[in-house]
Design goal:
By secondary structure, the protein is α+β, with helices and mostly antiparallel strands. It is built from 21 helices and 24 strands.
Length: 623
Amino acid sequence: MEEIKLVTFGSEDLKTVHTHSTTLQLKLKNLEHMRISANIVPVISGTIQRRQINVLGKDGIKDIIHSVDLANSIPEENECSSVELLIGNDFYRDIVLPQRIDIQSGLYLLASKLGWLLTGRTDENSDETGSETNLLILTHGDCQTTTKIFQSTDSSLPLKPKLLDLWKTEAIGVVENKETSEDKEVMEGFKFTLKFENGRYHVTWPCKEERKELLSVNKELSFGRLKSYVKRLRNKPELFEKYYSVIQEQLSKGIIEEVNNTKGDMIHYIPHHAVINPQKLTKTASMILRELLTNSDKVNASIAKQYRNEMKDTSVLGHTWNSKSDTLSIRQSKIQSVNNLIKRFALKLIASVFGPLGMLSPVLLKDSTKFSSVDKLIRTTTLAVRFIKEIKKQKCENQSLTSQELETSEIMLILYLQRTKFSETICGIYNQITTTQQRQLGLFIDPKGILRSKGRLENAGITEGAKQPILLPRNEWFTYLIIEKVHKQNCHCGVSQTLSKIRYKFWIPKGRSVVKSVLGRCSTCRYFEGGPYKMPAFAPLPPSRVQEALPFSRVGLDYFGPLSIKTKDGPKKVWVCLFTCLLIRAIHLELVQDMSTEEFLLGFKRFISQRGTPAEIISDNAS
C-alpha cells in the first residue's frame, strides 16, 4: 500500500488516500517503452467529453491533420469516454517534444512521443448556446454535448451544490468494501455468539480473526501493572478501601468470578484499575452497578435503597433531567468567544453538547461568536428566533427578514445586555429605590422594558431617541459594534462627531473614552492618519563638509550650559562655547563667564590663538 495526498479542485482540505502501486511500460510511437510508476484506484474521474471540431474540415487544415501521425483520433461527433490513465505533470517534458505546428490563432499541434496532440482553442458558433470561445481541454461532465469554458457564474455553477457529492469519496478512488465492513462483521459475530444461560446473556469478545496471533500471553506484564497500581492505592487509604469493597461485593453477588482454568487457544489479560470522577458527589470505582431513577414513585419504591438515586435532578447524556417534572434542561457551560468562526471550532462546539436533532446548534454558535458587525449579529439573532418559531410550528409570513423582525431582535439583545449589566439599577427602579446611577442619568424603564436616560431636552425639536436615549454598557462587544457602525456610516468621522451621532439613539457612560478606544482600532483610520509623515530625502553634503582642508578651517559654533561650578565666593554659573570642525568632527571647548558679546569675543580670540583663523563659521541665531 502507498499513501498519496490529494487536494481536489475547489477544496482547501488535504485528503489522504491509501492505494496499491504498480509499474507500467508505455509503448511510444518509435516502438520504445517508457517505464512509469502508477497508483491503482477504482475510479479516476467521471466521464469526459470530446466534441466535434468543425474547423478541421477546411481543406488547408485538413491536409495538415492528415500529414501527421496523431496520438489519438479526432472525434467526428460529440462523444464521451472515461479516463483510464492520468499522467502527472512530472512526466510532461519526458513525453511532449518542442515541435509545434500552428493551425490557426490559438489552435496548434504539439509533437510528443505518443504522437501529435491537438490542443488550444477555437472560435466556433454553437446553435444552442451562441458564439463563445471553446477550450479544447478534457473536462468532467455527464455526457454533455457542449463544453464552454467562458461562461457567467450563474450559468456555469449551480446555485446549490449537491451535498451528497461533498461527502462521497468514490471520485478519488476511495470505495468502501461493504462485504468486509468491520461493523458488519462485529454485529454478525455478536448475533452468532449471543446466548442466554442461567438467567444471563453471554457474548464473546469482538476480535479480528487476522489479529488474534498478535495477542501475546501478557500475564506477567498485567500482574506487574496491578502490583504498581495497588502500591499507589495504598497512599490513598479511602480509595483503596472503596476499591477493595467493590471487588469483594461483586464477587459475592456473582457479578465477577475468579478464573482458575486459563487453558485455551487465546489467552490475554487486561489490567484493571478504578475510574474516579471528581465531579461526582461520591467517588465510586468502576464496574459498580449504576443507581436507578425513574419518574414513577411506584417503580422507585420497588428499587433497593442501595441502588436507588435519591436526587431530584440527575445527569443524562450531559443534560439535567428533573425526575419530578420529567423535563430535560441544558446544562450551562462556559463557552469561549472567538473573533473568527472556523469550521473546526463550530463542529467542536456543536459536538460538546449532546443534541441528536441539532436544535441547539444555532444557539451555541450565536453565543460563542464575536460578530464583525452589529447588522450580522441582529440578522443572526433573527434567524435563530425564526428557527425557534419553526420548532413551535409557528409559520413566518415572509421568506425574507422583515424590518419589524430585525427591530425586535435588536430590542432582545439590548434587553439582555441591560438585564445583565444594570440588574441592580433595574431592580431599584421596580422597587422604587433610587440608586446613584439612576439619579445621575435620570434613568427610567419605558413600556417595552428598555432602560432609558432622561435629560433636559424634552422640549427640543429632535427625535424621541435623542431626547431619551437607550442606556448601553460601556465595555461590551455589542456597544463596540454600534460605535463601529456609526463611525463607518459617517465616513470615518472623528471622536466628537461619532459620539454626537451615537447619542441620537444611545447613551454610553464615559462615552468619549469608549469611542476613542474603538476608533483607535479602526484599520482604515490608522492607515490614512495614524502613521508619521514620510521623511524627505537627504540633500547632498555641502562642499565644506567633504572637500579637503586644514582642521578647524571650517567650523560650527554653538553654546551649551549653564554649568554650576564652585568658586571661593560660592556656586557660580558658566557656559561653554563649542567649536566643531566640519570636516573631521573634532571639537574645541572654551569656558565663558556669561553669554555676553564681550565674553564670546574673548573666547573666540583664545580659539584663534590655538587653532588659527577659520575661513568659514556656521552658527544659529539662538544666542
